[in-house]
Amino acid sequence: MPRQFPVTNQPEDQEGGISYSVGIELNRFTGSTLVIGDTVFLSDEGVELLASTDGSYYAVNAYSFIDSDRDEVGGLYGRDDNGQNLVGLRVIDEANKGDDTVMQIISTAQSGAEAKVTITANQEGGDSTALIIQQDDSNSKITMLADTYLMLGRKVMLVGAGSEICDVYITSTYFVIRYNTGGGYYYKYLDLSSTSPTWQHSTSEP
């Protein structure tokens, strides 16, 4: 039988106080909600946190991690911006101690099983983009490592310092480099099935 919802005296109505609504039926916790600070809701449906609505992150809409000095080191945040729902997982050095910040997403499996980390962007009826961006004023790099091979698909877009763009991909038996001239595309391609391939050029995809 589920644990009975704890019942305490109603606190006085004051800032920072706790209010709650409790429903007990046949010693079972049904339809009950605990409201903490007007932003956190605990119930039999789970934990709900009210998102920020002004484009900023605040602890009132987050699961926050703090150090022994009560300085925040990270958290999970929700934002309800105009026309955009956003959930952010971040790690910070709130106390400005000069600490490194590391974000890790780890999947660990036993031998014989498979460990996966999946990041998916899914837009119904339209284009979807999953972004990994490093913001730095000087030297930025993103490192991807695999013990055997790194799989990328279907196309890789390369962006130059002056916003020049080319796509690198495979279609049929051809290795293709597609360059965006601004007014159209140039294609350089190599037939990988040939024993003595040579680069070819076209204004259309092979």
List keywords for this structure.
disordered N terminus, 0% helix, four-stranded antiparallel beta sheet, elongated, mainly beta, 14 strands, single chain, 206 residues, five-stranded antiparallel beta sheet
**C-alpha Rg (nearest Å):** 26 Å
Count of beta strands: 14
In terms of per-residue confidence, which ranges show pLDDT below 50 for 5 or more consecutive residues? 1-10, 21-29
β content, as a range?
Answer: 25-35%
Please identify the structural class as seen in this structure: mainly beta
Distance between the termini: 66 Å
The helix count comes to 0
Task: Name the average pLDDT.
Answer: 82
Morphology: elongated
Strand order of the largest sheet: 10-11-12-13-14
H/E topology pattern: EEEEEEEEEEEEEE
Considering DSSP H and I runs of 4 or more, what fraction of the residues is helical? under 10%
Biggest β-sheet strands, sense, barrel: 5 strands, antiparallel
